[in-house]
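pls ignore typos typing on phone
6-chloroguanine + seq
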Amino acid sequence: LLSLFLLLLCCWSFFDSPFEQSLLKKALDKGLFSINIHNIRDYAAGKHKVTDDYPYGGGEGMVMKIEPIFNAVSYIKEENKKEGLSPHVILLTPQGKTLNQERAKALSLKKSITLICGRYQGVDERVRDLVADEELSIGDYILNGGETAALVVIESIARLIEGVIGCRDSTEEDSFSMGMLEYPHYTRPADFMGHMVPDVLISGNHKEIKKWRREKALDRTYRRRPELLERIDLSAEDKEIMEKIKKQKTVNSLHT
Ligand code: 6GU
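k done
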């Protein structure tokens, strides 16, 4: 049972609608995991509940203060302790390691995760040193805050938790689960304005279909994301397919 603790700077209503959506809501209702949202302001001191301040050394923007974050995470740790848990604390920041399927899988095995949604101008560096176990980014672009990134992280993890997705296959065969891109999918009609579904898929020959799909997955990965292929172990049969693909490489590269 995974419990996620989100630590936000502002607007927790941000998460109302996504958590009301089918997959996450069903999993939450079933108790497959739970989410607690903490407003960082509640952990800030003084009448004004200040959570950010001007940067030492000058410059643009504000910096999130360490005390409210430290206090909030300490509180969450105490709460976790009562249940025999110890949260894995993640600071969401574009400076973190980029999330990938492998990381999502590893995180889905944790019992408790605390996500700190930072602001892009930054959090006090000491949060990295003293509070976070890990820094995570969702890609090489800038978001205003970590909230949207948190949603991405949550969804990628939640769908890997046992029981969240009905059909086990649908996560195992996804792009990246096999370390490569997926083969093309088709459904009816077989003929859409003259654009036909490949014959092999209609043939009923399951061995041929499997082979075709493997070939297409390898081909697509090679053309679009060749770096992914370097990280996976190809079978002798895969290697043969790759030889064929490399020979055909010249044309069609924009269409496959
Ligand atoms: Cl985790 N946070 C922000 N603010 N921007 C991002 C990001 C995270 N990952 C990519 N861009």
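DSSP finds ten helices and nine strands in the chain. The first helix runs from residue 22 to 29. more later
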